[in-house]
Design goal:
The chain is built from eleven helices and 18 strands. With about 425 residues, the protein is α+β, with helices and mostly antiparallel strands. It comes from Myxococcus virescens. It holds the Pfam family JmjC_2. This is Cupin superfamily protein.
């Protein structure tokens, strides 16, 4: 029977040489796990708020699943994390009172898009891997597995992702098969008891990191009846699907705003849309009409090049994890406010058509005008030294007092650059000193 390698020192060079896309490895208590229980709870709260948005809201998300003894409750609300829980421990206590001996599983996909603290630490951790193997074109996925469920609801399966499991709380077991253990024409198997003899396991505890390649069939199990929490990060390695590029081009990919994404996910054909002879109406359904209009706009030569450049800059500044968390609320900046940037994750600036694209933390804004003063402002922020807003805006002219909400891209004036700084602050690419 195969056994898993166990390491007690984490080193990216050794990992890439010995294990990356080759075989599983368990890193025990190395102290490098980037995920903190507080960040995980904060991101889970954000995902829960989105899941509980009114059904008609375009922001409503479907990233959250909850099961009780393998069944799904009709109403999610009572079972998801709440602000009043205060922490994962508080959430567990509330569910223990409500569920008794019944087992449950909370699974949240795209977890990184719901909490900036979690996303930021995750991006920093994996940046060292990207320097060695390259940035994944489709981006990584981040999934929370929380509960005392007997085994993963989907059963034994194979992913298209090479996977890292970061154990946060409690203990859990991962069971592996080097090849598919069954011969039936099914892709997943919930009842896998007949194939246990051909499997091998790895048990993880708080702070451990477990890695396995995409070629291994696997299933997650509880090591006890206690609640366990883990975050899985999947990196796609079995091929980049062309549809992802098309979704990005027409503005419906994972890195785009919920409004565009959800409209594209709308049903192109609905009951009653065909006439008695089975003929479609001349007018396109809303979802197809919006996608067609977006593609038409983005297919113009200059716009296409600018759009592709913006997508690539956002992918780079997001560090492989899209979509990033939503921007914070904008606040006005005074000349006396002191700012600083982040040297480790600088603001990216490149020419796009007649203007400039500025990308930070997976978000972009566009600026028009001469590059030199704009480039100097961005370069100053990227040094991470503290500087006043007034000093940053001094080189820019004060002319051009048109309402900025009507101007896109932002002009290279004092008003335009002040707005640019305010937007970068919402991206969390810069910070106010002392905060």
């Amino acid at each position: 029977m195969a056994r898993i390698d166990i390491q007690r020192r984490f080193d990216w060079d050794t990992f890439v040489t010995r294990y990356w896309n080759q075989r599983p490895v368990l890193y025990q208590a190395t102290g490098v796990n980037p995920f903190m229980a507080t960040d995980v709870f904060d991101a889970a709260l954000g995902a829960s708020r989105g899941a509980m948005a009114p059904p008609t809201a375009l922001e409503a998300r479907t990233d959250v699943q909850f099961t009780i003894d393998q069944g799904q409750p009709v109403q999610l609300g009572p079972w998801l994390p709440r602000d009043t829980d205060g922490s994962l421990d508080g959430y567990d206590s509330r569910l223990a009172d409500a569920l008794g001996t019944r087992r449950y599983a909370l699974i949240i996909s795209l977890l990184h898009s719901h909490g900036f603290g979690l996303w930021s630490r995750e991006r920093a951790f994996f940046s060292d891997l990207w320097r060695r193997v390259g940035l994944p074109l489709s981006g990584g996925i981040t999934t929370l597995f929380h509960g005392n469920y007997e085994h993963s609801p989907v059963g034994v399966h194979l992913d298209r992702f090479t996977t890292f499991l970061f154990a946060i709380r409690g203990r859990k077991r991962m069971r592996f098969w080097a090849r598919r253990p069954w011969s039936m024409p099914v892709t997943t198997l919930v009842d896998y008891a007949p194939y246990l003899a051909k499997s091998f396991t790895a048990e993880v505890g708080p702070g451990d990191i477990l890695y396995w390649p995409a070629s291994y069939y696997h299933v997650g199990e509880s090591a006890s009846r206690d609640v366990a929490t883990s975050v899985n990060v999947g990196i796609p390695v079995t091929g980049h699907q062309a549809r992802y590029d098309v979704e990005d081009l027409v503005g419906t990919g994972r890195g785009h705003a919920p409004r565009a994404r959800d409209a594209a996910r709308g049903r192109a054909l609905v009951p009653g849309v065909l006439d008695g002879d089975g003929v479609l109406p001349r007018e396109l359904p809303a979802a197809l009409r919006q996608a067609a209009n977006t593609l038409r706009e983005n297919s113009r030569d200059a716009r296409t090049q600018a759009h592709i450049r913006t997508l690539w800059l956002n992918r780079r500044s997001a560090g492989g994890f899209e979509p990033p968390p939503p921007p914070a609320r904008r606040r006005p900046l005074e000349d006396t406010d002191i700012l600083h940037g982040n040297k480790s994750f600088p603001i990216l600036l490149e020419k796009t058509g007649t203007g400039w694209c500025c990308s930070a933390n997976g978000n972009a804004l566009h600026v028009s005008g001469l590059r030199q003063p704009v480039n100097k402002l961005v370069a100053t922020l990227n040094t991470a030294r503290t500087v006043s807003v007034g000093e940053l805006l001094h080189p820019f002219p004060s002319r051009g007092d048109l309402p900025l909400r009507a101007l896109k891209p932002l002009p290279a004036t004092r008003a335009g650059m002040r707005r640019m700084l305010e937007i970068l602050l919402t991206f969390r690419a810069i910070q106010l000193a002392g905060r």
